[in-house]
Amino acid sequence: MNIRCARVDDLMSMQNANLMCLPENYQMKYYFYHALSWPQLSYIAEDHKVVLTILFCYNLFFFQGNVVGYVLAKMEEDPGEEPHGHITSLAVKRSYRRLGLANKMMDQTARAMVETYNAKFVSLHVRVSNRAALNLYKNTLKFEIVDTEPKYYADGEDAYAMRRDLAKWAEERDIEPADKEAYAVSKNSDDKKKQRH
Asked: At the top level of its lineage, which domain of life is listed (predicted)?
């Protein structure tokens, strides 16, 4: 297995994995939006079964591994809020689950969020009925439920809004943020806010 940053030529395979694994699906332009806006944040897991990819419009031929999982991620850049990442989608094909691939891809994404964008935390949404995903997020990746969003999904199911503290996670792993000074100032103000509450 190989975990690497996703490239534009991986997007079709990522979309295919999404269609195989999840009820929430996206148009190709949404994958392009992520890949072009935040190219450092999305990752794939590929096995060693080689797939020949042919791009006729560019007369390109190349070999790549078979995509068996992916994480599609972005930054939330709302004015007045601290920089933080968001996991748009995470999927691993059924026969490749329980190998630690989701954990490894999520850690790579978290590292890139801190090192590139000074992200303080990462958020995601998950169906309240998705026990396997909840177990992964809460017990393995240490996300916390911060809210329940009623009727978040198209079929009317509620979602848990979850969050993972990246400042503490990065500090424990000696991961250096993009701007150490800004990160430290922001972290100190966060600590003071917590002490007041």
From this structure: Eukaryota
